[in-house]
Amino acid sequence: MDIPHTVEARPDTGLYNAKVGIWLFLASEVMLFGALFSSYILLRVGAEAWPHGLLSVPIGTFNTVVLITSSITVVLAWASLKLGDLSRFKLYQGCTVLLALTFVAVKSFEYRDKFTHYYVRLQDGTELNGHLAGNPLNWTAANLADTNRVGASITFHPDAAGGEGEGAHGGHAEPIELTAANVAKLESWGPWRSTYLAIYFTLTGLHALHVIGGALVIAYLWGPGSRMWRSDPERFTNRVEVCGLFWHFVDLVWIFLFPVLYLL
Amino acid sequence: MSEHHAHEIRQATRKYIYVFLALLLGTVITVVAAYVPFGSRSLNVAVALLIASAKAFLVAGFFMHLISEKKLIYGLLGATGFFFAGLMFLIVWSNADQFLSIFR
Amino acid sequence: MTATTHPGSTATAHAAGGHAPHAGPTGFLWKYVFSTDHKVIGIQYGLTALVFLLLGYGLMALMRWQLAYPGQPIPVFGELLLRALGPDMADRGIMTPDLYNSFGAMHGTIMVFLAVVPLAFGAFGNYVVPLQIGAPDMAFPKINMASYWCYFAGGVVMLVSFFIPGGAAKSGWTSYSPLATVADLAHRFDGQTFWLMGMVLLITSSLLGSVNFIATIIQLRAKGMGWLRLPFFVWAQFVTAFLLLLAFPPLEAAGIMQLMDNLLGTSFFLPTGLVVSGRPLDVSGGGSPLLWQHLFWFLGHPEVYVLILPAMGIVAEVLANNTRKPLFGYKSLVYSALAIGFLSFIVWAHHMYLTGMGTKISTFFQTTTMMISIPSVIILTALFISLWGGSIRFNTPMLFALAFLPMFGIGGLTGLPLGFSATDIQLHDTYYVIGHFHYVVAPGTIFALFAGIYYWFPKATGRMMNEYWGRVHFVLSFIFMNLVFLPMFVQGLEGMSRRRDDGGATYAAGEGVYGLSLALKLNVGISHAAWLLGVAQVPFMINLFWSLWRGPKVVSDNPWQATTLEWATPTPPPHGNFTHRPVVYRGPYDYSLPGSPTDYAPQNLPA
Ligand code: HEM
Ligand SMILES: [Cu+2]
């Protein structure tokens, strides 16, 4: 016996199997991101100070627009299939994949920015934030001791006064030479720097994984998967719908992440 | 594919475009509202979350067709929403002593 | 199968409108290893889970030596432990405190996540649910396979963690932060990291499984199988699946955060100013240890219903079948199961009364906890009343099912004092707690699982298990289970703490400590009972495998004269399960209908 309702809807529920499946999955995703949002709130109310303005709002806005646009191309791709137009579908869905790639590229650029921004505490107790000459990625004090790599010292350009990221323009303080001897602690602005950065990296990292996963499925349905259109068009359309639902959910999560992490 | 059906889809497509434009507008409002001082940070937070919820409603309602879904899915999402709310609210409540400092 | 091999009969089958069973996959690998058939997956789950059950027991059997005879080398096994894990763990064959902690944490983890849930949900759910609702398979067979293999991988990760430097996780099955993060600072990839990676795999497995179960029950019910005609077992699995679906993701989130604390040095759960071994920990701080507890128990409490609901389902099936009468209050059973499912999401912080949450919120959780005991009591009462006036068949499945009732009763009732925030102050983290929840999961759930194995074995294999040895297994298990767990209440009331590698001896020797003398003596007795409990499983193991090859063949597809649909399939059911699409005409428990020629009316018997 074949499994019923893989394509045609079951009369009493009005749904085909995969649609029930994806909504169940999304329900569990709501709880996953919901738990992280709850953690965000708890960490924030418990924090002594919550940093603001660490992230670039124009870049975040750009990425928001990218994701919203990808949502409309997904839904238009599905509508094209409903109208029996495979080539339009391919056009729209191709755009979706490109937009997804853009999003991930921009995101990794933002990540890189954090891993090349440094906090340093000197032996005399001075604490500074800034950049290292040549923008090396994710250094620690251990890299300074490793003389084979850069010689004995590296130039550090402190950010302008005004503190953590807020208004990073204006007169820069004098550059300093960092050596293994005068540095007590050196770390980039990775998730270890503060609970804000920790939850930022976790939320956006998990979200980015969803974007990548969704993009892979969409790319598959755009490429080799689309052969099903000829053998079983209805089932193919269903697949596109189901993966579209996932994609919109990912978009929806970002709609909350953007203000929560970039603006507030 | 009946003519009637095709017509419906085309109508829906137009709706999707409007929703898309509304979402873009919502994004702009979110950003602008973040820079308008409403007097207290909590107020700014509330406004931002309100706008985000409106945008989420548009995505879920129209792109995900939740405006006209089957009862079963409403039931599922209703339960999920309830448990999510319970999780968030009760965790926050149990740390209520930190509340005075909320959203500094 | 015969229909397809004979060309003539194939034609007639089609002419008659019957569905010839699908030719299943061929080749050993695809048929038995990477199978997508729910029955094969069910059995894979079952066998793997039984191995883990034995392992979880084995860890405890070793720990019980240390509790009874602290500081003495373990006979025979001590030498093995020394060879396998080295002198850091088992110096001269003595269980070190570290090893005790590892084994304790892994006993809990293995029992809950790798043995009982996979057996109750993965094995019985997979095998029986599609059959009982009249479906050819699960809604998503490939996802079902993926679910098993994620579980398998998670199990392997947990097993490997015993042998890495520093040993397996040591911070209890609850893995409270910050202890879990700082327990083994010497190793970057420590046992806790493995535990978390294993858990992420197990959670993924559960999510895949629960999506599948719910979709299957909603979408694939046979014609006529309305919601209130579902066997109670299916309802129990349905609610269980929802618990797993919605309660596990927060733990997954917490697991990811703790993994980041361990590997990347974040401070999600590490408070400011944390000092470890006299030195301040070099982290940003600002995290919340209570956050971990919230997210853990948000899963942890529903998880106990994941452990018990399928067991109740099995017991309900076996009771109805062997009392030969309908279950008492089928509808109240169903609604109670739903109420339990719902309420179990809002009681979790009764595990956290001692964290200083404040009295208002304690009162809230105390109230919901008392509320959830109501549907549990309704279920137990309905099952008890179902016995009333039945002409009971005392076969092995029934004996285990009957024993479940008082055992679960003890487990449940001893939970009430723990649910009140005032009495919990005294009882928290004592052996009273250990006694309480083991009565639920060991003589409770495990007895139900045994009942299920004896009950469905003939369907799955086509052979009966041996009745005599089944009874021996039952009587011995019943005696030793109680000898193990009943004294623990006494120990707990005397004030003996859990998670003590010397069973409280050092504490008892302290100045001004009175009591505990009885508790220490009881430790010895409990340990012997626990080892004998293991011996009592030998008849079962032999019976299981011997019956597989030598047991008497079943003479009918329905050897217990049962009513539910799984017995309407050929034995064992072929790929695709049913020879015809079944149609359901009646409720699940039409036993002893007045005026009917037999004392049972199967669900597919036209009314
Ligand atoms: C059948 C034989 C079993 C015996 C003799 C046994 C015995 C014990 C004992 C003595 C402890 C306390 C250890 C300590 O605090 O130092 C314990 C802990 C525990 N057991 Fe069992 N148990 C058995 C079965 C099970 C089963 C079937 C489950 C679950 C389904 C289970 C779950 C747990 C859990 C979660 C803990 C807590 C571990 C921790 O402290 O983190 N046990 N067990
Ligand atoms: Cu609980």
Q: What keyword list fits this structure?
A:
heterotrimer, A: 264 residues, alpha+beta, Four Helix Bundle (Hemerythrin (Met), subunit A), SH3 type barrels, 2 domains, five-stranded antiparallel beta sheet, 8 helices, 60% helix, elongated, C: 607 residues, mainly alpha, Cytochrome C Oxidase, Chain A, two-stranded antiparallel ribbon, 22 helices, 2 strands, 64% helix, 1% strand, globular, disordered N terminus, binds protoporphyrin IX containing FE, binds copper (II) ion
Report on this structure.
- The complex is a heterotrimer of chains A (about 260), B (about 100) and C (about 600).
- Chain A has about 260 residues and is an alpha+beta fold.
- Chain A has helices at about 15-45, 55-80, 85-115, 140-145, 145-150, 195-220, 230, 235-264, and strands at about 115-120, 125-130, 155-160, 175-180, 185-190.
- In chain A, strand 1 and strand 2 (about 125-130) form a beta hairpin.
- In chain A, helix 1 packs parallel to helix 8.
- The radius of gyration of chain A is 24 Å and the shape is elongated.
- Chain B has helices at about 5-35, 40-65, 70-95.
- By secondary structure, chain C is mostly helical.
- Chain C has a single domain (about 35-270, about 290-570), classed as Cytochrome c oxidase-like, subunit I domain (Cytochrome C Oxidase, Chain A).
- In chain C, about 65% of the residues lie in helices and about 0% in strands.
- Chain C has 22 helices and two strands.
- At the A-B interface, helix 1, helix 2 and helix 8 of A face helix 1, helix 2 and helix 3 of B.
- Copper (II) ion (CU) binds near residues 347 and 351 of chain C.
